[in-house]
Design brief:
The protein is of the alpha/beta class and about 450 residues long. It contains 16 helices and 10 strands. A hairpin with a 2-residue loop joins strand 3 and strand 4.
Length: about 450
């Protein structure tokens, strides 16, 4: 211990807090990026994956970050890219009692206490008695009251935790319990997602499941807010859909036509890759604008969005290394510009680090190119476009003290103990100098 403290004291002389460079890059605050997973960098040298992602998100100038909170993914060994909480897993199962317990894992607490203003949380319930998104298409049996009650309680407790822990932080949390809902619906017909699935029939039970599932979340979030009125923190239920052009606008049974109008979703998110399938950038722009208008017409009204545009882009990106002839950078850029011009609430780029590389510690050529940062550390074509087009001189940072590692409102011994436990992995000398300069505040 004495050696550890001596080392840290010496480090403050070598690298004082005043020498830490401030983030000089800021993008339009509606832009965010997803830190889902990635086979690089080498975690033995870079430390905790979530903390690395938060650091890079701020360095790139994004005000928003999407985090994956899916229990099976946090413990999964498949693909080698998630495994973000293996020290809390037992037999590939997350060893926490519920969603609130998952949110209080140290790496999530630390990540969400950092100066990121907007967090999209792709969440699933932890309890085996609660409903997960697969329940929408996996069974034709009606939901039981016990399943609904378990889900309601688990979600409500988690939202009450967010409202309490991040009170006064200036943060907004977009709670997204379903990824690409239309894909869940067509799966109930037996359609494989690597096929178009544009014309299959969606059974009524799947539509009913989707409505009940989302409204259970809506009721839990609403009741949590009534018990703990939000003060300096905002929580929205965000419902993601994806087959607007290919199904909804063709009059097919779909999330936009048959689910969203019957829910209390605060914001409708659009995974918008289909807009890029037009033959040229002009067609892409038209696709995006028509889709957003269609979604806005179907979305429930919300008092926070008096113009009726409570729509965000939940996911969009461009595979820079792709050899496909139907996608291009120009078309992806046209889709993003159209959405931003239309006035979306947020736009999340896929993704910070590429998750589809063919080997660990890859070269740039080993990956598909869905990235902001390449394996060699250089920035992607898409990021350079965003920086050139959407840079701003006005930072959008919540009033969070980055030295308050456990987010209890002060920098004290509890924060020091967290730093000490994670020194060399989660934290480094920069974190120590920040903590030291803010001690007692």
């Amino acid at each position: 211990m004495r050696y550890f403290l001596t080392l840290l004291f010496i480090s403050t002389i070598i690298l004082p807090f005043s020498a830490i460079p401030a983030h000089a890059i800021y993008l339009d605050e509606r832009l965010g990026v997803t830190n889902s997973c990635g086979v690089y960098p080498d975690r033995t040298s870079q430390g905790d994956y979530l903390q690395y992602g938060v650091q890079k998100t701020r360095e790139l100038g994004f005000a928003g970050l999407e985090l994956i909170m899916v229990p099976r993914s946090l413990c999964s060994s498949g693909g080698g890219c998630y495994q973000q909480a293996t020290q809390y897993c037992s037999g590939n199962k997350l060893d926490v009692p519920d969603m609130r317990g998952m949110m209080t894992l140290p790496q999530y607490q630390i990540a969400m206490s950092k100066p990121i203003k907007y967090f999209t949380l792709f969440v699933e319930a932890v309890k085996s008695t609660s409903l997960q998104q697969a329940s929408i298409h996996a069974s034709s049996e009606p939901y039981t009251q016990a399943e609904i009650d378990s889900t309601y309680k688990e979600v409500k407790d988690a939202i009450k935790y967010l409202l309490t822990r991040y009170r006064g932080s200036g943060k907004t949390f977009y709670i997204a319990p379903v990824n690409e809902l239309d894909n869940r619906l067509v799966q109930s017909s037996g359609c494989l997602l690597n096929f178009p699935c544009d014309d299959v029939d969606v059974p009524a039970y799947s539509i009913n499941h989707a409505i009940n599932f989302l409204n259970t979340y809506a009721r839990a979030i609403k009741d949590a807010k009534e018990e703990i009125p939000p003060e300096g923190v905002t929580v929205y239920l965000t419902c993601e859909i994806n087959r607007v052009i290919s199904r909804s606008m063709r009059g097919k049974t779909s999330a936009a036509n048959d689910v969203i109008p019957h829910t209390q979703c605060d914001i409708v998110a659009y995974s918008a890759y289909e807009t890029i399938m037009a033959s040229n950038p002009s067609g892409v722009r038209q696709n995006m604008l028509e889709s957003l208008n269609y979604i806005a017409d179907k979305a429930p009204d919300h008092s926070d969005f008096p113009n009726g545009k409570n729509v965000m882009i939940g996911e969009i990106g461009y595979p820079e290394n792709s050899t496909r002839t139907d996608v291009s950078f120009d078309k992806a850029a046209a889709a993003i510009q159209a959405a931003m011009d239309w006035g979306v609430v947020r736009l999340n780029i896929w993704t910070l680090l590429d998750q589809k590389c063919t080997k660990a510690n890859p070269t740039n050529a080993d990956c598909s190119g869905f990235w902001m940062i390449k394996p060699d550390g250089s920035r992607s074509q898409m990021y350079n476009y965003l920086r050139t087009t959407y840079s701003t001189t006005a930072p959008s940072l919540p009033p969070t003290n980055s030295a308050d590692l456990n987010s209890d409102g002060t920098v004290n011994l509890l924060d020091y103990n967290l730093l000490k436990a994670g020194f060399g992995t989660t934290y480094n000398l920069l974190n120590y100098n920040t903590l030291r300069s803010q001690w007692g505040q």
